[in-house]
Structures are given as structure tokens and as C-alpha cells.
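thoughts on both lines:
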Amino acid sequence: MKIPIHVSEESREPIYHQVETQIKTLIASGQLPPGTPLPSIRALAGDVGCSVITTRRVYQNLESAGFIKTIQGKGTFVREMESVQMEETKQKVIYEAFEKAVEQGKQLGCTKEELGAIFHETVERYYKNGG
């Protein structure tokens, strides 16, 4: 199974973190429901274009955080998550994305007011266009 993950080489964010965040998002949003088999570490590394060491780290982090489980000889699967954990994950992912946007805006010299206006305009445009 191939999962939709896109890695940006230009990002200052480490590849393992990009992949981990995207898998968490897919799980928390329900796009990868509980019981869904995930690709092997080797297959994911090939799909993403990174090392096996990187994908092993991603899976270890996700497993220790309770998002996935590995069953010896069968594979790696999405775990059942409590709704509180799913909501916390959604908020954390969104917060981190906003933080990055604010950081970039500040580096470009935007004021809080300008960033707020851009945010509201972006949200309005997105939902107006059927997003």
C-alpha cells in the first residue's frame, strides 16, 4: 500500500519529521483508519525517497506515541486511537503549520495585523472555493 506523503528537500524540517507529521495527520483525519496496514519500512523508504534508517525512526516514533503497532511476521498497522488523542493530534499539527507560517511571515517583515488579515483571507477563500 502506498500512502500519500510528500517530502520537501527545501524544507528546514528534517525528513523524518515531515513523514511522521504527515502519517499522524492521515491517521488523525481518518484517512488511515484503525487496522490499515502500512507499507514496510523498506517500501516506505523507496516511496518517499529516503533512507531505511529514516523510515525506521518514523515508525519507532509513531509506535511509541501509540499511533501504530507492529505485529511480528504480519506487518505494521494503524492503531485504534481515543478521540481525545486524535483531537490533540489535529490541533498540534495545525498549530505547528501556523507557527511555521507566522515564522516565515515575520522573517519577511509582516506585522501581526498583516498576518491576521492574510490568515482570514486565506481561510475565506479556501472555504468559498469548496475546500
User: Anything to note?
Assistant: Helices lie at 15-28, 41-48, 52-64, 83-107, 112-128.
